[in-house]
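Hi R.,

Here's the chain you asked about this morning:
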Amino acid sequence: MKNDIWSMLNAAEQELLREIQPGKLRKLDEDELVAVHQRVRRARDKYAKNYRRGAARQVGKDRSRGKASATWSKTARKAEAFEDALARVSARLAKVAQDSADALKAERLAAARRHKKAPARQAAAGKGKASASSTKAKRRTGATKRSAAQARAANKRHQAKKASKG
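And here is the predicted structure, written out as tokens:
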């Protein structure tokens, strides 16, 4: 970060930006990254909101958007600094979250494979028996009843038309 922006920040803001240096970010787990992400987002939102509101008020006084935004440029630069910081934290959080999701998926698949192997041995011992899932009854819903009725009516119309010709 540039020294001119660094000198604009107060001690708490400087400490927050020190926490997001790459070496320190790598040491944080997912929950800690979420906490840092929230803090950086709050700081970014604060300065972005202050800039928008201040510049909007200033436009009324100055009668010029360019002049008003120049007056609030310090706040805008702080908002940009926290926006960059938020992007870095977000990228790291996304990577850690994806790694965590991949690990959970692998664990879940391994557990499913272990669970699947045990019933397969039991099924091999009792060959010829139908399982409950293979003899599942069809559900009769309103849509399937209506479809069946339409098919019966179409068949009857077709047969009646054939019989009248014959």
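One quick note: The radius of gyration is 33 Å.

Cheers,
M.
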